């Protein structure tokens, strides 16, 4: 006689007698539960309904922890990450443009706002990019230098002559020049008059000229 087909169990919640198999009683840690599957589902739903806030909070905390973990990994493995991204893009040619296009399509409004912001800042952003690639070509230490942020931080006062800079006169100077060991980092860049900047450069290149 096959015992598995005849053994029964009484659900501790609804009191119904059901077959003592995983078909009627779900398993937990390798053992059949004392409540039937139907009751278990009801209990689950009830718990979720009562603790909706707690569950959301728990999920948020887990997500935060995951994000923090992966960020820490990223900080400690930047080179590896870069190599991974590169390898992925080599395997998926054109994927980047496709992803960007899809994003723009689904986020039209955001994309328009971004375009407006970029246009407003474009003279600065263009200079920012040029300066960065020039610095890279020189082989100096390079970080992101946000020209807009520098203007907010230092205002439009020239740090070389102390006078106000008009828009058309605006330039950005590396306090310690590249050939004197200066880096392209926010701490080493200040808004200046283009004229003051070029005077300073001349002085540094030809220190003997009066
Ligand atoms: Zn039950
Ligand atoms: Zn000046």
Kindly describe this structure:
This protein is mainly α and 210 residues long. Among the domains are: 7-50, Wheat Germ Agglutinin (Isolectin 2), domain 1 (2-Layer Sandwich), CATH 3.30.60; 123-205, DNA Binding (I), subunit A, CATH 1.10.30. Helix content is 57%, strand content 10%. It has helices at residues 3-6, 37-50, 52-76, 78-91, 95-106, 108-138, 147-154, 194-205; strands at residues 8-10, 17-19, 27-28, 31-32, 170-174, 189-193. It has a two-stranded antiparallel sheet with strand order 1-2. It is elongated. The N and C termini lie far apart (112 Å). Residues 205-210 have low confidence and may be disordered. It binds zinc ion (2 copies).
Keywords:
210 residues, mainly alpha, Wheat Germ Agglutinin (Isolectin 2), domain 1, DNA Binding (I), subunit A, two-stranded antiparallel sheet, two-stranded antiparallel ribbon, 57% helix, binds zinc ion
Short description:
This protein has 210 residues and is mostly helical.
Layout of helices and strands, plus pairs?
Blueprint: H1 3-6, E1 8-10, E2 17-19, E3 27-28, E4 31-32, H2 37-50, H3 52-76, H4 78-91, H5 95-106, H6 108-138, H7 147-154, E5 170-174, E6 189-193, H8 194-205
Antiparallel strand pairs: 1-2, 3-4, 5-6
Bound molecules: zinc ion (2 copies).
């Amino acid at each position: 006689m096959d015992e598995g087909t005849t053994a029964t169990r009484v659900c501790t919640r609804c009191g119904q007698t059901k077959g003592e198999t995983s078909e009627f009683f779900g398993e937990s840690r390798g053992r059949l539960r004392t409540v039937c599957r139907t009751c278990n589902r009801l209990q689950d739903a009830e718990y979720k309904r009562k603790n909706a806030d707690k569950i959301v909070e728990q999920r948020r905390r887990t997500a935060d922890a995951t994000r923090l973990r992966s960020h820490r990994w990223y900080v400690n493995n930047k080179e590896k990450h870069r190599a991974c991204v590169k390898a992925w893009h080599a395997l998926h040619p054109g994927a980047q443009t496709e992803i960007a296009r899809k994003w723009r399509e689904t986020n039209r409004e955001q994309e328009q706002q971004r375009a407006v912001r970029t246009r407003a800042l474009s003279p600065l952003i263009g200079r920012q990019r040029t300066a960065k690639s020039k610095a890279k070509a020189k082989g100096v230490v390079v970080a992101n230098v946000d020209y807009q942020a520098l203007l907010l931080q230092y205002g439009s006062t020239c740090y070389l002559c102390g006078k106000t800079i008009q828009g058309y006169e605006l330039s950005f100077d590396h306090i310690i020049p590249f050939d004197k060991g200066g880096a392209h980092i926010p701490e080493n860049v200040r808004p200046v008059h283009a004229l003051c900047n070029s005077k300073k450069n001349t002085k540094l290149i030809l220190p003997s000229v009066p």
